[in-house]
Amino acid sequence: MRLEKTTIKAAVAVVLGVAVVSVSATASATVSAAHRAPETPAVVCGPGYTVQRQAAFSGGVAYLLYSAGKQNACAVTFKTKNVGTRTLLWSAVDVKGAGVMKNEEITPLHTVPVYHAAPAGSWVKFSGGTKTTDSGGGYEQIK
């Protein structure tokens, strides 16, 4: 009989221990998410992408990034007004002779990145904007 009580107490302690660990892990993940570094264009596009050009417009900034290793261009647009409020925002990247890739969405901070194959030496232009204003750049050669 004594053995049964000890076994039950041990089982309860194990269950409570697991519950405490789970709560602690969840609380820790929430704190980490709240204190993470702000997103940048390079973080949004991914490892290996570096900013090539940017163009500001009323309400945001459009960026063109490039990864030589992946031979890809990436366009992403960040808001500078109404940050945190879901509004229409878009990004586009155009590789001369290969067409345009565009993304338009309602977002609180920045667009999902738009990727386009662009071997070194390609002529690329980009743009981004909101419902009422936009910006971008003309064709320039990727180096």
How many strands in all? 8
Which secondary-structure class do the elements indicate?
alpha+beta
Order of strands across the main sheet: 1-2-3-6
Largest sheet: 4 strands, antiparallel
Describe the structure.
By secondary structure, the protein is an alpha+beta fold. It has helices at residues 2-34, 41-45, and strands at 50-57, 60-67, 72-79, 87-95, 99-107, 114-117, 123-130, 134-141. Strands 1-2-3-6 form a 4-stranded antiparallel sheet. The N and C termini lie far apart (79 Å). The model is unreliable at 1-35 (pLDDT under 50).
Task: Report a brief summary of the structure.
The chain has 143 residues and is of the alpha+beta class. The protein is globular and about 35 Å long.
List the helices and strands and how they pair.
Elements lengths: L1 H33 L6 H5 L4 E8 L2 E8 L4 E8 L7 E9 L3 E9 L6 E4 L5 E8 L3 E8 L2
Antiparallel strand pairs: 1-2, 2-3, 3-6, 4-5, 4-7, 7-8
Keywords:
143 residues, alpha+beta, 4-stranded antiparallel sheet, disordered N terminus
